[in-house]
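At this stage, I needed to go through a protein sequence along with its fold in token form, as given directly below:
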Amino acid sequence: MGMPDYPPYTYIQDGSYHGFGYEAFVSIMADLQQDFKIVAEPNYGRAVKDMQNQVVDGLFLASENEERNKVAEFSAAVTYTGWSWVWLKQRSDLKPDSAEFKQNAIVSAQLNSNPYLWLMKQHYKVAGAPNNIRMLFTLLNSRRVDAILLPGLTAKAVIQQEKLDPALYSIQLEIQRPFGIYISKAYIARNPDIMPKLNQAILRYHQRQKMPAPAPSH
């Protein structure tokens, strides 16, 4: 399974896997009693290419798009991701929900990520899309773009990891999308019952999350 570098959902720190997307995936696989091997991917573009070339059997966590649906099936939502605009707070002239912003602002997102594909489809002025999610802040801080689009939680995680000052940035939610697990059609052809089983395991995962914590024993 391909796991993109996408904090706080999935990331590597000190040589080990972290993130609540990773923890959710491990919990779901344990419920399924399904063995797995993780392939760390630098970004979504590479993860999708590896899935197309059958280097990996799927990827997590991801949002849905047409390109991915050609080679894989999308699971029930494990969680939701909120794509958010991030811009320098001193740029008080920027209003991401205005028509003027869409027409004139130079924006960026991680190359081949779903926010990037969405921006292109919506006809925003997209420039300098980097492969590395962290490079988006380099573009923004150097004023090569006016704003960047990525999940708000990812923006906050990168700001923290890169030791940037959160007071410098404005963050505004644009759209919420389901975040789930993709399994390749090649793998499904060999294991035709995997998707119903996976979706049932995701349902049970949500039920476990809502259960009250057990009372402490004395």
